[in-house]
Amino acid sequence: MEDQTIRVELTNSKKEKPDENHLEFGRVFTDHMFIMDYAEPIGWHDARIVPYQPLVIDPSSMIFHYGQSVFEGLKGYRTETGDIQLFRPEKNFQRLNHSNDRLVIPQIDEEFVLEGIKELVAIDRDWVPHTEGTSIYIRPFIISTEPYLGVSPSKHFKFIVIMSPVGSYYKEGINPVKIAVENQYVRAVKGGTGEAKTGGNYASSLKAQEIVEKEGYSQVLWLDGMERKYIEEVGAMNVFFKINGEVVTPQLNGSILAGVTRDSVIQLLKYWDVPVSERRVSMQELYEAHQNGTLEEAFGSGTAAVISPIGELRWNGEHLVINNGEIGELSQKLYDTITAIQYGKVEDPFDWIEKVNLKSKVNL
Amino acid sequence: MEDQTIRVELTNSKKEKPDENHLEFGRVFTDHMFIMDYAEPIGWHDARIVPYQPLVIDPSSMIFHYGQSVFEGLKGYRTETGDIQLFRPEKNFQRLNHSNDRLVIPQIDEEFVLEGIKELVAIDRDWVPHTEGTSIYIRPFIISTEPYLGVSPSKHFKFIVIMSPVGSYYKEGINPVKIAVENQYVRAVKGGTGEAKTGGNYASSLKAQEIVEKEGYSQVLWLDGMERKYIEEVGAMNVFFKINGEVVTPQLNGSILAGVTRDSVIQLLKYWDVPVSERRVSMQELYEAHQNGTLEEAFGSGTAAVISPIGELRWNGEHLVINNGEIGELSQKLYDTITAIQYGKVEDPFDWIEKVNLKSKVNL
């Protein structure tokens, strides 16, 4: 990308901000958005921050037909001193480029895009809520916009970032969830798109999710698509199990998303000298550990909930209650530590925090 | 759907039509489009034919993030008498509803939508080309439009139909293609979305396609995602092999698209008393048939090309040349017969043809 400037057009009509005590996830968006365009042979160009507005897109645009798209999700946190900081944002843009490669979407300049997002956060700083547990959710995404019905990689794309103030995932403290092991539907298989953050993975998950919700379960636990034996992910999160003092999580095998929170959990456990391993974990192994009393904790990890304890697993008609359906000690410690780092309440020994310079170059 | 009327708003500025002798696939669109909206709890509503125009969609709309979408593809053919006719359109709308079910998209009224498309074709009748081998490509699609970042089924959708005049797939006669058997990437797996016509399946196929194109192959042949042994599809077509006088094609196992042309080929073969079976076909079986001289023909089937003969298969470094790289007798007969039925040049013993009433209710 030759032109590394970001054009800024500020809104004339600021929107009313929502009540910080009743924030829903992803329904209200800030006053501005970041956009840049891609066209062959120019490459990425015309990076700009503009008023939040609808996209005007031809109905033949590829995104509506062939799903060539990727996205990311990260958060900005308000500290007690009023600063705003991001959590490991460089990991999100590394992963976005990894997803781009799988989806045949041109690479982005990770540093430039991160600067653009920090500029956007600075401009919409008043949208970052102050209430305990709240944050600004940042959604970068890329869509294919060439107006052409041939099945081939698009020659036009848009990279867009929108932001939404969000409440605490746990309004009344952390409640362990009930999870159903999925035996019929498959999320991804080796050779597919499971390790890319692309729309199709989420579209394909809706059916299984709908079925288990009706049965009283909050999410599904996906098994591998080849043998239907090995654990992959839970819902849209990575998953961990504490068995006889050791924490295990499925290895990154090509069909699992490499979660930023997953990586942070592993680093923290190593820092604490808690045994942790990334390896194949079968449902049969979990069942046996439950039967002999060594399945001590289970939890999902992700940007939205950080740590989501699992209180019950349903598998083949069996109901495995874990840790009496209560949050485990280690799950709680991980949640407390990661959120404390995110909100700047404790030291950050891993250099995970990236501060946003609120003295934006833009004159507000 | 309670209100079964279609509102019509005609364009004031008709576009110039492209040269019928140089039509590209899917780049130029007709003067009008069909749209209807879905919202809970109203259901599908406000069916309308309006001037072809860009969509104005919020950047938070689910289609840009989670890929909840389905589509179809069919053609309208100009007969020698100037009539326009469709080929088995009811099959496309049955399949669209099947795809809808898998993607958690509300069912459409198949008969009503077919009436809407016939009305659209009648209004844009002058866009249906007359030149030999040309047709109007009709693209119905549904996109999720709720402005919400939660991963859950959308509560708002748009059903849209756009149309594009297209040339003959074979400008200089049918040329058999070279196909590479794909060993690394997987299109779909049982339990996934392979039998639904949804964007994610096409997005995930782009990478493998890009690689083999650089190696001089026109498409990939997908193997099953579990054992990587059994034939699934070729590119975006179904596939058939004639082995020792019998035609075989992979059975519909949950990960293969149920092609309309595929079904038509099977019906025609039965009508002609040619042995045909739908069953598992392994690459090893094809290899052995090739070695002992019984792999007589191979071809893909789909709406775009109708019949696409395969002249060479690359598999594990082996190059299997089929029928000396020439189109086989049966492939040619299938192509000739299906296209003759589509263009109304021969009788239609199967009741496949649906005529469009060109006396549209609309006053042009």
Quick structural overview:
2 copies of one chain form a homodimer. Chain A is of the alpha+beta class and 364 residues long.
How would you describe the overall organization of this protein?
Chain A has 7 helices and 19 strands. By secondary structure, the first copy, chain A, is an alpha+beta fold. Chain A folds into 2 domains: 7-168, 2-Layer Sandwich (D-amino Acid Aminotransferase, Chain A, domain 1), CATH 3.30.470; 177-342, D-amino Acid Aminotransferase, subunit A, domain 2 (D-amino Acid Aminotransferase, Chain A, domain 2, Alpha-Beta Barrel). In chain A, strands 1, 2, 3, 5, 6, 7, 8, 9 and 19 form a 9-stranded mixed beta sheet that branches. In chain A, strands 10, 11, 12, 13, 14, 15, 16, 17 and 18 form a 9-stranded mixed beta sheet that branches. The first copy, chain A, is globular, with a radius of gyration of 21 Å. The two termini of chain A are 27 Å apart. In chain A, 52% of the residues are buried. The model of chain A has no long low-confidence stretch (mean pLDDT 95). At the A-B interface, strand 4, helix 1, strand 8, strand 9 and helix 4 of A face strand 4, helix 1, strand 8, strand 9 and helix 4 of B.
